[in-house]
Amino acid sequence: MVYAFNDTNERKVLWQRMNVLRTSIAGPWVMCGDFNTVLSPMERMGGRTTNEEMDDFRNCIEDCGLFDGYVTGCFFTWNNKQGPEMRVYSRLDRFLVNQHWFDSMPDAYAHFHNEGLFDHTPCTIQVRCADFKSRRSFKYFNMWSSVDEFLPCVAQTWKERIMGTKMFSVVKRLQHLKHPLKQLNKALFDDVENDVARANVFLDFVQQQLHSDPMNSDWIEKKREAAKTFCELKHASDNFLTEVQSALDE
User: Fold this and answer.
1) Is the pTM of this model over 0.85?
2) How many CB atoms lie within 10 A of CB 90?
3) Mean pLDDT for the stretch of residues 27-55
């Protein structure tokens, strides 16, 4: 994972260290992250770059035997979030591999997602496809107790007759309470998560349009509004999760 300095001279130290590192690598090698410079002028829009910094980076990866692996998603991986006249786009983040990596994992690729609320685009590396089934852990939300249906739901479960010690009966009742509370959440609070998801989808759509037409002032403004809406909804959703985690930690 790479996070390069903004300063050209400081980046030269990284290039030197990469050259030293390559002498100890005989097998597959991948370097991914923010290299903070571009390889060609076409990888920057709205800003300036120097031949020196591009040449230094190009010479480094050639000496290391690295090249761009397969990538999908956004071409520009960073933008300065400014208005149309000051907007700058750059391809600062890369997925570099050597020939051993390419030969041993020919189907591997990196996907650069839309940036969301950040200035850089997140990157995920897909090495192989796998079918992972995740199971959500049960979480209690304080918001459930704010509705009239909550107490009857708990009372109904607490009426169950369970044989055993007091602690055992409490644990079993809490276990039995999970399902009705999940049903309560689905009936009354399901849109809390859905609103965040819908806002995220809309933000992703707006960013796709903006990547196709980077200097369009309408899309830039819509992106700001979509990001604000998503941020507010996500903040509200995170607050619920934070309250739950605090209760669990206590």
Assistant:
1) no
2) 20
3) 92
